Amino acid sequence: MDLLLALAIALALVHFGFPLSYYLYLKRKWLNKPWDIRRDPSYRPRVSIIIPTYNEALLIESKLDDIARQDYPKDLVEIIVVDSASTDGTPGAVKKWITSRRGVEVKLVEESVRRGKAHALNKALEVATGEVVVITDVDSAWPSRDTLASVLSWFSDPLIGAVTCLKVPAGESFIGVERSYRDYYNVIRLGESKNFSTPVFHGELAAFRRDLLVKLGGFPVDIGADDSHTATLAAISGFRAIAVDNALCTELVPRRGYHTWRIRRAQHLIQHFIKTLSLLSKAPREFKPILLAEMWLHLFNPWLLVLGTIILIYKVLIGSLAALILLVIGTILLMLKQYRTWVVTQVCLITASIRNLWTKEITWEKQEKEITS
Questions:
Q1: Is the pLDDT of residue 177 over 80?
Q2: Going from the N-terminus, what domains does the chain have, and what CATH number goes with each?
Q3: Do residues 372 and 171 lie in contact, with contact meaning Cβ atoms separated by under 8 Å?
Q4: pLDDT class for 313, splitting at 50, 70, 90?
Q5: What is the reported pLDDT for 361?
Q6: Is this structure's pTM higher than 0.90?
Q7: Per-residue pLDDT for 105 more than 60?
């Protein structure tokens, strides 16, 4: 066999084989294992729920309603809306909601300049009084009334430093691709968490011990994945940072600009893992293999697909029938949802890596999303 053709096949085998092996390892060894955590379901700490907003007048009241519906003692909850110079009347909508709802403590913090989500979170953290701080995006929902109580109960174990949800898409746009993507990654997040910790958190619901947040210096303002990086720092510090299976959240999917949305999120995760590279030696023994696997999947593995494809195209151009057959097979496989979802994800990661060369997308244009009842 031609050496270049053999190299292309080898690259493809590694590219597809490693993530599949990692998925099967976590699913078979860890997914169905019981949690090695001392969780008290009745544990009820005081909580500060931070909602960062920018031009969210259409969604903020429903988000506040969503939180107010939670079956959790109202005297143990404070909601902090931190608005980053909205121009659509978001602060006014918050004030209107506050006057119409009694018994719910809400603080409104207004920034005069939009500097990014992490800046806003740190501003809100200055006035937070809860033992646990929860951050949640406006375009997300907690379908169960027990979501908050379920998440906070994990903090009854002193080794738990951070907790996040699993999530599913709520909008109709690209929902097939997005749901398939989530099904795969939810298994990964749970398996990593039961092993030790996961380095990827979700903005729909991410909870942290407040004293730990303060010790870590708040949320990082130089990268986009503030929730994931802070959770990773918690795990590197010896705490557990876990995604739990008793907290499921939904997120709205953009009507337009779906791929731009995916690429921006990929940019933020890539920034997070690049920043984490220098901290790898400090990670606990159980966490280090997880970090290495995720760094490989986000930073290096996508480029194997690019290199292998380039080699095959080159071989086709110089008359290789075998290379043409392989490219045709790869194209036909795009009819399979799981394969198509994976390829789309790799394209997003590759594009994100390139875009990170000139922009970090710390702030971005708001995208229109499906509003579901």
A1: no
A2: 1-373 (3.90.550.10)
A3: yes
A4: very high
A5: 78
A6: yes
A7: yes
